[in-house]
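Figure 6 in text form: structure in, sequence out.
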């Protein structure tokens, strides 16, 4: 909130922002009501989620998604918010996979904050500053497409629903947090078995944060990067790994539902249009 207020923005909290209902931040009705109230309030320019966790999928049946798309507003968040990104993107509204309020509970590198505001304010198509880290090439090549994706477990959970993840012809972002390596393998296998990712134009993998730390020393495992490369590299499309977005230290703000170019040779993703205009 301090970052936003220092920039001159007024921050308005939802009425139930501090509510608690076991593992949820209030009842579904409270949370959906706060989201709808903010979305349809003409004085509110953007909805920035306070945190991820779990529970967005429960809200989708309670939201008037078509009306939300017809009343465009910027939705900013990642992790569990992936479920909402998928639903809005399928209906033609671009959204922003980006840090949330909780992400700034610890100090971030200046470029993370700068890129956050650049993405929200639409000052230029998004590209990483020269001093930010890049991804590592898995499969070389250059491809273009609309960007989709987000948190791996939410992509897998979406299959079979009206808001299912659709990778066909698109550049796919993938990251996650606190999952065992075998669970990463299982979710990627699920996407492959459902033929949900085979049509991707390119793949940008962020970080599976704290996955390697989940390993039980009594059970053989392998590093998460090996798992991801083993499952996805055979698709043969341009692919990079370790791109600076997701739950880790480096949190790039990346529009979803707009076109970008993936240069897998350089480990870079550059946007071709302004996300906030869509």
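Output sequence:
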């Amino acid at each position: 909130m301090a970052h936003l207020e220092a920039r001159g923005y007024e921050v308005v909290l939802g009425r139930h922002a501090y509510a608690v209902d076991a593992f949820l931040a209030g009842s579904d009705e409270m949370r959906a009501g706060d989201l709808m109230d903010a979305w349809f309030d003409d004085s509110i320019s953007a909805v920035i989620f306070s945190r991820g966790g779990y529970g967005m999928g429960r809200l989708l049946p309670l939201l008037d998604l078509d009306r939300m798309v017809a009343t465009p507003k910027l939705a900013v968040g990642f992790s569990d918010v992936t479920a909402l990104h998928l639903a809005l993107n399928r209906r033609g509204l671009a959204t922003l996979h980006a840090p949330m309020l909780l992400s700034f509970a610890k100090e971030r590198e200046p470029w993370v904050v700068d890129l956050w505001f650049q993405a929200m304010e639409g000052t230029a198509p998004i590209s990483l500053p020269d001093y930010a880290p890049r991804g590592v090439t898995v499969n070389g090549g250059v491809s273009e497409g609309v960007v989709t994706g987000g948190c791996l477990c939410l992509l897998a959970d979406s299959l079979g629903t009206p808001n299912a993840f659709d990778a066909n012809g698109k550049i796919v972002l993938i990251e996650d947090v606190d999952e065992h390596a075998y669970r990463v393998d299982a979710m990627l296998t699920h996407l492959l078995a459902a033929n949900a990712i085979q049509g991707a134009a390119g793949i940008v993998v962020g970080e599976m944060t704290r996955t390697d730390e989940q390993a039980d020393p009594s059970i053989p495992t392998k590093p998460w990067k090996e798992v991801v490369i083993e499952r996805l590299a055979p698709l043969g499309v341009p692919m990079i790994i370790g791109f600076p977005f997701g739950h880790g230290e480096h949190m790039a703000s990346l529009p979803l539902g707009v076109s970008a170019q993936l240069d897998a040779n350089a480990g870079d993703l550059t946007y071709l249009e302004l996300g906030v205009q869509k």
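Caption detail: The first strand starts at residue 46 and ends at 48.
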